[in-house]
C-alpha cells in the first residue's frame, strides 16, 4: 500500500525515533508498504518518520545510482542490488574527508542543496528478520544511509546547510507546510489536509 509522505514542518519529522521491538505490530507489512511508497515516489530511501511514525526504521534502495558512469562496473553492480532495511540503527563511526553532494528529500519536494558528509560509515542495525549486523558502507550507499539515519534522529538535510541557504529556501519551505507544492506522489501537509 502506498502511504502519504509527511511534508516539511510536521512535528513528527523532529522527533527522535523510538526503538522498534521484535513484535512491533505488522512490521513486515509496514516494511513492504514503505518500500512500495519509496519506489512509487522515486526515492532512494524512506524513514518511518516520513510516513508519520516516530520509530527507528528506514529502507534504502541505491539502484538509481548504479548508472553513474564514474563508478567501476563492480560499484555499479553493487548499487544496483543495494536494497536494505535498517531497524534500530546506530552509526558507530563516520570517517574520511567530507564531500558535498546535492541532496533532496521526499518530505521537502523542490528543495535541493549541497550537503557535506563523511564518505565511510560503520553502522549497527537489525535487518527485517531482526538479525543484528555491524557493517561498513561507503560512497552513495553511506550517503543515503546517513540521510535516512538523520530522519530517525529528528534531523533534516536542511539543518546541515548554511544560514544563507536557509534564508533563500525559507519561502519554499513555507509553501511545503502550506501544501502549495507539486509532488508526483501523495503527501500530507502540516497546514493543509493531504491531497
From TrEMBL:
This enzyme's EC code(s): 3.5.1.88
Cofactor(s) demanded: Fe(2+)
InterPro entries reported for this sequence: Peptide_deformylase, Peptide_deformylase_sf
GO molecular function: peptide deformylase activity
Keywords for the protein's UniProt record, in alphabetical order: Hydrolase, Iron, Metal-binding, Protein biosynthesis
Domain of life per record: Bacteria
Keyword Metal-binding recorded: yes
Regions annotated as coiled coil: none
Binding annotation for Fe cation: 105, 147, 151
Cofactor note text: Binds 1 Fe(2+) ion.
Keyword S-adenosyl-L-methionine annotated: no
Active-site positions on this chain: 148
Catalytic activity: N-terminal N-formyl-L-methionyl-[peptide] + H2O = N-terminal L-methionyl-[peptide] + formate
Pfam families registered for this protein in UniProt: Pep_deformylase
HAMAP family named among the record's database cross-references: Pep_deformylase
Family, similarity comment: Belongs to the polypeptide deformylase family.
The protein's role, per its UniProt record: Removes the formyl group from the N-terminal Met of newly synthesized proteins. Requires at least a dipeptide for an efficient rate of reaction. N-terminal L-methionine is a prerequisite for activity but the enzyme has broad specificity at other positions.
Name of this protein: Peptide deformylase
Species whose genome carries this gene: Paenimyroides ceti
Amino acid at each position: 500500500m502506498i502511504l502519504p509522505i509527511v511534508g516539511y514542518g510536521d512535528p513528527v519529522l523532529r522527533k527522535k525515533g523510538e526503538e522498534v521491538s521484535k513484535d512491533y505490530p505488522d512490521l513486515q507489512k509496514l516494511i513492504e508498504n514503505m518500500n512500495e511508497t519509496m519506489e512509487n515516489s522515486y526515492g532512494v530511501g524512506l524513514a518511518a518518520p516520513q510516513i508519520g511514525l516516530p520509530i527507528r526504521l528506514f529502507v534504502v534502495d541505491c539502484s538509481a545510482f548504479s548508472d553513474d558512469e564514474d563508478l567501476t562496473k563492480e560499484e555499479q553492480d553493487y548499487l544496483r542490488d543495494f536494497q536494505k532495511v535498517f531497524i534500530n540503527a546506530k552509526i558507530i563511526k563516520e570517517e574520511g574527508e567530507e564531500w558535498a553532494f546535492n541532496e533532496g528529500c521526499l518530505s521537502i519536494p523542490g528543495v535541493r542543496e549541497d550537503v557535506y558528509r563523511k564518505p565511510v560509515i560503520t553502522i549497527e542495525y537489525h535487518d527485517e528478520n531482526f538479525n543484528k549486523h555491524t557493517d561498513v558502507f561507503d560512497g552513495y550507499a553511506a550517503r543515503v544511509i546517513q540521510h535516512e539515519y538523520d530522519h530517525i534522529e529528528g534531523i533534516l538535510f536542511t539543518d546541515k546547510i548554511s544560514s544563507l541557504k536557509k534564508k533563500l529556501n525559507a519561502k519554499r519551505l513555507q509553501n511545503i507546510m502550506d501544501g502549495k507544492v507539486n509532488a508526483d506522489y501523495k503527501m500530507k501537509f502540516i497546514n493543509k489536509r493531504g491531497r
